[in-house]
Design brief:
The complex is a heterodimer. Chain A is an alpha/beta fold. Chain A has six helices and nine strands. In chain A, helix 4 links the parallel strand 6 and strand 7. In chain B, helix 1 crosses helix 4 and helix 6 packs parallel to helix 8. The chains are: A alpha/beta, B alpha+beta.
Chain lengths: 203, 299
């Protein structure tokens, strides 16, 4: 099977046929962007120091080593819990024109709405696989808002075939993790009933 | 050995061990992941398990922390009352954390609360977090080092049930936490459950439960039975790696307990992600040591 590779800048038509559960890879640029960067843009109305139109963001706080020549080396970079950015993501997509949001776990109805309205997708990179991802980073080209410390700095990465990226919210607003969670919750009741009858230790 | 040299020697050992556990999973976890991977039947889940294995190989080969989130460093110390450096141990572990942060390198994860500034050293007020148990008539010390990332720390929950809710209520609480919040915590998880008298006692025990080997059981037959029931039940939900559905959900469920007030059942859940980075080291009075969790480990 051929690898499906997205390249930045990403266009609407690159995403429209993708559906939740599809696996893609990314070549081009991806910028780390997490809690405080979202808060600065949306709540504090500060302009982002990076143009994200057609771009990709990574909910990630990496380990970066500063080299003697002043450049940065990506040591370890994996996704963080995307749900923390849920309250900001709809406005974030609207204001920045970002097309691909990479993170971990699911996101909620605001992100679904943003993905549907502005033709963007959320994708999951396998959590904890941070050295795998670091080996797919060719270079850290810039580092913005370094005052936020290592995890929160906006690291501008040039990547080659970053992935696997599992589409978890598509441009139709389908949400893979929410669907999975509903399935887990539906199974929960009957399983617990079986357990209850065997743990009546208080007699 | 002069005291100062002894302090330096132990600091060096603990810094190296702290860095080591961020790069290598303990043997019990590695074996369990291999077993879960072999049992997995869904293609997407299999692909995720493959990425996980590739990642651990790359971390080993490149000598890097396998996950970027190297957590807030916690040390669970079981100290012999006669250990020669007992009084110095707190400072030694703090310095070891600073040293490991530079050398590993570890991510800077200590943010001073209220000041809201990252200290950049992984040390800060009461951090690294130290948990102490004192053993009489022992001149050595056993230390569990634990790195929990934010992802698997977020699901942590505790409550106090009324006795009428019984152990059925404990089971329900565990299932609610895992089904609603475990999905984002990098499953397959190791689930730690504390059953005790209050929130703080249950919470501490639930974390101590995560220090127990995968596949081990509580000494009490009822508690051990409940571990198996919860493990099988959670697996039946089929959460799979990363919550993307699969044959299993968890690496296991470990329960630790204490006696309780007759009117309360304190219950807490802590989760360890698949990259369950903990290590146990036994240090003798002469500062020779043995690593108990990682077969073939060399510092």
């Amino acid at each position: 099977m051929n690898k499906k590779v997205l390249t930045t800048p990403i266009k609407d038509e690159d995403l429209e046929d993708l559906r939740v559960g599809d696996v893609v890879y990314l070549t081009g640029h991806i910028v780390t962007c997490r809690d405080v960067a979202h808060r600065r843009l949306i709540e504090l109305k500060r302009e982002l120091p990076v143009d994200l139109k057609g771009g990709a963001i990574f909910h990630a706080g990496p380990i970066v080593r500063k080299l003697d020549d002043g450049k940065f080396e990506m040591v370890s970079i994996g996704p963080t819990t995307s749900m923390r950015m849920e309250k900001f993501e709809l406005e974030f997509i609207e204001q920045t024109g970002v097309k691909l949001i990479v993170g971990k776990g699911g996101m909620g109805p605001l992100t679904e709405e943003g993905c549907k309205k502005y033709k963007a997708v959320h994708a999951i990179f396998p959590g904890g696989c941070a050295v795998l991802a670091a080996t797919q980073v060719e270079e850290i080209e810039r580092a913005e808002w370094q005052d936020l410390g290592m995890p929160e700095t906006l690291w501008v990465n040039r990547v080659k075939e970053l992935g696997p990226l599992i589409i978890s919210i598509d441009t139709q607003g389908n949400n893979l993790i929410e669907k999975n969670k509903a399935e887990f919750n539906a199974k929960k009741g009957p399983i617990l009933e079986k357990i209850y009858s065997q743990v009546s230790f208080i007699k | 050995m002069e005291k100062q040299a002894a302090v330096q020697s132990l600091t060096d050992t603990m810094a190296k061990f702290t860095a080591y556990i961020g790069k290598h999973l303990p043997t019990d976890v590695e074996k369990k992941l291999a077993e879960l991977r072999a049992k997995e039947t869904k293609p997407l889940a299999k692909a995720i398990y493959l990425s996980m294995a590739e990642n651990q190989d790359a971390a080993n080969r490149l000598d890097r922390p396998s996950c970027q989130d190297t957590g807030v460093i916690q040390y669970f110390v079981t100290a012999g009352a006669k250990f020669p450096l007992l009084g110095e141990l707190g400072e030694i572990l703090e310095e070891a954390t600073r040293e490991a942060t530079r050398t590993a390198p570890l991510r800077h994860n200590a943010v001073e609360t209220f000041v809201e500034k990252n200290t950049g050293t992984n040390t800060g007020t009461k951090i690294p977090w130290l948990d102490w148990d004192i053993v009489p008539d022992d001149d050595g010390v056993t230390i569990d080092v634990y790195m929990a990332g934010g992802g698997c720390t977020l699901p942590g929950s505790a409550t106090v049930l009324m006795p009428g809710q019984g152990y059925e209520g404990v089971a329900e609480f565990v299932f609610n936490v895992i089904s609603s919040r475990g999905v984002n915590a990098c499953p397959p998880l190791l689930v730690g459950v504390g059953v005790s008298t209050a929130v703080e006692t249950a919470a501490r025990l639930s974390k101590k439960a995560l220090m127990r080997p995968v596949g081990s059981h509580n000494a009490d037959p009822n508690a051990a039975k409940m571990e198996t029931l919860l493990e099988d039940g959670l697996n039946e939900m089929g959460i799979g790696p990363q919550g993307l559905t699969g044959t299993n959900s968890v690496m296991g469920v470990n329960i630790e307990s204490s006696a309780r007030h007759p009117s309360t059942i304190g219950v807490a859940v802590n989760t360890g992600c698949w990259a369950h980075r903990r290590g146990r080291i036994r240090i003798n009075a002469d500062l020779s040591y043995e690593i108990l969790t990682h077969e073939g480990a060399k510092l």
